[in-house]
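QA checklist item 7 of 12: single-chain prediction sanity check.
[x] sequence parsed
[x] length recorded as 256
[x] structure emitted
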Amino acid sequence: MINRAHPDRLRLLSYNIQTGVDTQHYSQYLTHSWKHVLPNRARLQNLNQIADLIGQYDIVGLQEVDSGSLRSGFVDQTEYLAHRAGFPHWFKQINRRIGNIAQHSNGVLSRFKPSDVQEYRLPGLRGRGVIVCQYGGDDGLTVCIMHLALSKRARLRQISFVSQLVKSMPHVVLMGDLNCGCESSEMKYLMDNINLQEPSCEKSTFPSWRPMRKIDHILVSESLHIENARVLDYPFSDHLPIGIDIIIPDNLNLAA
């Protein structure tokens, strides 16, 4: 039986799920654009397949989740996936509300109870945010889930903001759709200023039907050992999910 206060390893996943829309070609951004504003039966079927995947992990960071609006059939997708995949702890961050049509959100699902969860709005145009989960207090594990802006200038401001939040934390995992590649100045800033490593830069995540760009990332403090960094071939979105295992140091307790 796994010791939930002190497991040997954690399986982590990050996934931009595009609110459950399974885009399979660039042309579908136009021909299936109605799916981004109206409900449809295929969306829930797609969420069920995503739940089957994420149920294999311990902590899951989600981007482009809908928190219960017309387009999702008023289903809170973070809560739905948590229940469907058997996660006892979950948290959503609504970053942009468009009336009853859409509620753009980030989400986190966890098999461990965080000692603290905070949400922050990121600098730049409204609609971007970061969730910061603490496991075991300030000396424990810090997990950040975020979705950065399309503009490079805004991304640099957002990364600087997040870096200030976590720079004093000893064990950090930062995951999400960062909208920039491994060789970008934004990624260099992160890795140089808070000593993070990115273990799978050679594997692209976007678009899911022909991956050519690595814009989804899981970055991890050098204090944490990484195994099995991978991009998974689960094209239930226009992004592919990414996963890693981290080996937990003996002195790191995840208990709240």
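[x] summary fact logged: The chain is about 20% helix and 30% strand.
[ ] second reviewer sign-off
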